[in-house]
């Protein structure tokens, strides 16, 4: 318990240093653009691929398992839409990104720590936490709404692919179900939740990487710990935010 409280305290202190005003805005903006490309743009491929197949699998599973003469044919499209909007494209996708992006951030900062690059920045009078971590957090928070949007569209396209090429059901019925009782707030709920998840992924992974001590083995352990901790915090935040936004 004491160790956990100590870790939380170190995390809060690190975030206090991180959110200081950048000394050189031009350099910060340059780093911010680089991190957007590395953390956000490079994640579009895996987001589209996974969302496409998940949308297709959800449609098939719902069609095969809840088919009943007492239920309208458009129920499959309706349930698929609700799953994609409310949980998968925001929460589950961020869990996947925690593994990809979080481990990337932790291993990058951890390597810089063990090779004394961060110490060199401190000796030169640079706020290393602000210089290295803040652009990553801003980049993740900026790009995550676009990744969520891409995930939603890719999942819907995957659902239609099961109709066009798999013959699971009529595309007209699926389309009607996707449009039935559409609530725009559900999209905003997913985006709002993803903003919090993006901050958790970037800040927690940066903390584990920035504070690593030892050699390459500790860097690997910090990368693993960052993914595990980020995933647990995302699930906990998902519970709280869903209650607040949908309650």
UniProtKB/TrEMBL annotation:
The chain crosses the membrane at residues 39-62, 83-102, 137-165, 185-210. It comes from the Bacteria. The keyword Transmembrane applies. GO terms for cellular component: ATP-binding cassette (ABC) transporter complex. One of its GO terms (molecular function) is phospholipid transporter activity. The keyword Transmembrane helix applies. Keywords: Membrane, Transmembrane, Transmembrane helix. InterPro entries: Permease_MalE (IPR030802). PANTHER family: ABC TRANSPORTER PERMEASE PROTEIN-RELATED, PROTEIN TRIGALACTOSYLDIACYLGLYCEROL 1, CHLOROPLASTIC. This is ABC transporter permease.
């Amino acid at each position: 318990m004491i160790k956990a409280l100590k870790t939380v305290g170190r995390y809060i202190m690190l975030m206090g240093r991180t959110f200081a005003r950048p000394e050189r805005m031009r350099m910060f903006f340059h780093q911010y653009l680089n991190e957007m490309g590395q953390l956000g743009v490079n994640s579009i491929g895996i987001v589209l691929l996974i969302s496409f197949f998940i949308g297709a699998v959800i449609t098939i599973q719902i069609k095969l398992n809840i088919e009943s003469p007492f239920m309208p044919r458009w129920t499959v499209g309706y349930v698929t839409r609700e799953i994609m909007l409310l949980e998968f494209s925001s929460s589950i996708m961020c869990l996947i990104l925690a593994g990809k992006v979080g481990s990337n951030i932790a291993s990058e900062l951890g390597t810089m720590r063990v090779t004394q690059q961060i110490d060199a920045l401190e000796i030169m009078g640079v706020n290393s936490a602000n210089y290295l971590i803040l652009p990553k957090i801003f980049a993740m928070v900026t790009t995550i709404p676009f990744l969520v949007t891409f995930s939603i569209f890719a999942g819907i396209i995957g659902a239609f692919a099961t109709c066009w090429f798999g013959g699971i059901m009529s595309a007209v019925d699926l389309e009607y179900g996707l449009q039935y009782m559409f609530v725009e707030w559900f999209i905003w709920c997913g985006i709002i939740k993803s903003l919090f998840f993006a901050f958790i992924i970037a800040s927690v992974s940066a903390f584990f990487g920035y504070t690593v001590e030892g050699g390459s083995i500790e860097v690997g352990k910090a990368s693993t710990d960052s993914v595990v901790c980020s995933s647990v915090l995302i699930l906990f935040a998902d519970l709280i935010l869903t209650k607040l936004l949908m309650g």
